Amino acid sequence: MTVEVNGKLLDTDEEGYLSNLEDWSPEVANALAKQDELELTDNHWEVLNFLREYYKEYQIAPAVRVLTKAIGKKLGAEKGNSKYLYDLFPLGPAKQACRFAGLPKPTGCV
Fold it and tell me: Where, by residue number, is the active site (predicted)?
């Protein structure tokens, strides 16, 4: 599978995660969100940037429970809860957000 960004085809796995994490850019995130019929807002970007920083530090994409707790610590309780995150990423805050952020599929995601 592929995603087209600025006329360039980027390889993805069968679930839409980038094959090469170095291919990621904000334009890639927007293209992947468009495939899911979402438009990324500042709130989405706050989570995506958090995920990219988390991955850079720990070399792992967090599962939803870990993500929710970590977001709550950094961004506050009003954002560190499942309802808020599912409102932003209806297909799963860890799974869908990690895909948009150019990260591998989180551990423990089916």
Answer: 109
